[in-house]
Amino acid sequence: MNTRIRQHDTGKINIILHDKQDVTHTMNQSAILKQHEGLQRIDDAFSSFTGLRDLKEQLKEMYAIRLMQTKREELGLTVPKQVMHMIFKGNPGTGKTTIARKLAEVFGQLNMLSKGHFIEVERADLVGEYVGQTAQKTRNNVQKAIGGVLFVDEAYALARGGEKDFGREAIDTLVKQMEDHHHDFILILAGYPLEMDYFLRLNPGLESRFPFHIPFDDYNADELMDIAQHKLREQEFVLSSNAEKKLKDHLVHLCLHRPVHFSNGRYVRNMIERSIRRQSIRLLNKNVYSVDDLIKLTVNDLELKN
Predict the structure, then answer these.
(1) End position of a domain, from candidates 217, 234, 267
(2) Which residues, at least 6 apart from 222, have a Cβ–Cβ distance to it below 8 Å?
């Protein structure tokens, strides 16, 4: 025997037994495969990103929640309110903006967002100079983001300023818009960990409105080396064995004595770009170029900064 769910006008639900052939909702093989394709798409989209071990699992949870909401709605069950607003906390160069942009794209492909576009704003885009400007500017940006992701970088800057500052009004307006458009809009507040912790303490109740808090940890030396190698492969360059050793030693030293405001992956990407420019200058003296000449970065090409 199977069960069938019947919902009366009163809103009450009866679950009754019926024969196997009397099934009101079945999941065929193609639908099952589609579910697995969704999880696989998340894997494929984010597997190339270094670190962020917890991110993929949380994204799968979001996908599962939204899928089960759809199944409950099809069966006439109450659909619990689930929001997908997020807090991203991480130091410079840990991938917050890149991940948010990719998230919007993938969630659009999975129909978790109707458009999947990405809107990035900062304090100046939300806070006005005069009375009445801030709420309107904030609402306008939310409207642009409907169906996608609104990414507020350095969100803690909204709490800066004195009594006459309108940052608080921007926060209040965002909170209301979060509630009004929770079904097809994701708000991501991003910033450095300590500043974001302080910002959230200043706004009681704000933190609890974001069910997903995703940490973007600093990269270790091995992860920074992975980022460097990935960047090199993308542009068809390789390191000589001596250059590779020198870079690895340098990254280990940096991670042991991490400079203030170290920019993680951004530092590595900028370093690779500088090294490619140095290689280009070195090769100007040659008249004939081999493939090896053009793709190999030597120790002398590396421009490393402490």
Answers:
(1) 217
(2) none
pLDDT of residue 165: 75
Pair 298, 243: CB distance under 8 Å: yes
Tens-digit pLDDT profile for residues 57-69: 889 889 988 888 8
**pLDDT score at 184:** 84
pTM for this entry: 0.82
> Residue 163: what pLDDT?
62
pLDDT at position 8 is 42
Instruction: Show the domain range for 228.
Output: 221-301
Residues 121 and 134 in one domain: yes
Query: What pLDDT, on a 0 to 100 scale, did the predictor assign at position 284?
Result: 94
Query: Is residue 210 situated within a structural domain?
Result: yes
Q: 156 and 60, same structural domain?
A: no
In this prediction, the residues of the chain whose per-residue pLDDT falls under 50 are 1-27
**306, part of any domain:** no
Identify whether residues 102 and 194 lie together within a single domain.
yes
